[in-house]
């Protein structure tokens, strides 16, 4: 109960509980005192018979017995309950019924007192020799009535008042000094008994109040403890579960994994699932629709897996599944295929094929969840690189690749400080491969153990290691050095293209760094081109401002690996794109592939309609070159013309290929 609630809200139920306690105590005491009253009545009848008052004594005894029977029946009669199905306890007695029973007890006590008052007839108004016996009996039963009715004063008072007033009245009527004194003593005795009855009731009510308050407090404390336990359990559940899907969250997943056996005879299988096409749902239909997709995916996962399998939403559109392979007949690869099929079922709200899932799988005998997560994440990345709705099981190839990534992460900082990294340059040719227009800068690192490191791995590791900006500055320095060399050779019309990863675009203020560097070296922005991947175009809001600032300065913008990622005509316009580079997967072997020729022709048509230059990457053979010229492709790049070269070799190649420069 809050402190603002009125005290009466507590007083009423407490008063009812006290009254119920009084009734229960009265009923118990009456079951003891009424039989005693019957025995005393029988003895009184015997005395009356002895003194020749047999008829009067018998009538009196019958009246007394009738009242006692009524009192016994009243004590046995049921009290109406608040909840008939609950036990008979003070807190379950109906308040109105309790008041009614107390009233009836007092009324029948008064009737009994009236009957005992008529005992004066048996001793001639307390003047006969047997008067002493009857006075002693009356004195005893009145005192006993106070004791028996200690819980409810009105009942014994109703009983003793008729008895003692009749005694005093008869004594006064008989006259005589000694009788007057005895009558006065009787009145004093009556007053003392009344006061004693009231004080006994007050003590009982106080005791009952304390008992019921203590009980109420104990119940409140128990309820508070239960509420605290429930609240703690609820908070614990919320802390361990995803609010949207109801699945385990990352924290709950890690806790559940920690409680599993540390090893399995056949192995644990961890699957990381990442939805394909989820961002397009958010963009096209809104985040509420995206939330419904996540809920449905969670439901399908839970429905497709048994209860002993851990299923979690780690965040965003990434889910995790962990199972003991000993408990399943199917292999993790088969299970992954089934999950892909379950999630790929068309959603009622969206077009078929919009949602897919890529799954990375790691199987390990040891329950090292951190290592398993790293391996499953590497497998997931490999699966996504192969297209939609694919899964990949962590294997020796990925294990070697992961070891390489860890060595890179350990050594890249030292390599940067020791200038061990190199920036190589590959020519881009225009006019159907007859004229040099650009050089593309490509970072290289010859690792002491793993040899040449792929640029994508180097950039990714640098980003995770907090070295994205030092690596970016390192590459920009060499790019600017090439630009300075070209200007010194009167080749300022040639551009140098520099690749930017999505992480660099999102993590770094690339516009400020580039513009500041160009101005410091007094280099024209028109000599620089920034190449971004289609993945970078997914989050236009985070890169649009940076690219707009670069474009305003005069830096050209190109989209690399066009055709394999996510981009649209609106994104090409919003990102101020000057050039798109067709991914090499469509160029290699184009002479033998009709489908690739159609794709390239459509991209060339798109570029022409939008006024955007198109470059074909990965030209390897003369046959590919011939087909590209037939399709009308003007700009090209590939090993057929020149491989990536260090700075000095690239300059030597340009000097030897002056006919391509003019």
From TrEMBL:
GO molecular function: cyclic-guanylate-specific phosphodiesterase activity
Sequence ranges assigned to domain EAL in this UniProt record: 405-658
SMART domains tied to this protein: EAL, GGDEF
Transmembrane intervals: 30-51, 102-121, 133-152, 157-174, 180-197
SUPFAM superfamilies noted in UniProt: EAL domain-like, Nucleotide cyclase
Keyword Membrane: yes
The entry's keywords: Membrane, Transmembrane, Transmembrane helix
CDD domains found in the cross-reference section: EAL, GGDEF
Pfam family, one: GGDEF
Sequence ranges assigned to domain GGDEF in this UniProt record: 266-396
NCBIfam families tied to this protein: GGDEF
Protein name, entry field: Diguanylate cyclase (GGDEF)-like protein
Gene source species: Phyllobacterium bourgognense
UniProt lineage: Bacteria, Pseudomonadati, Pseudomonadota, Alphaproteobacteria, Hyphomicrobiales
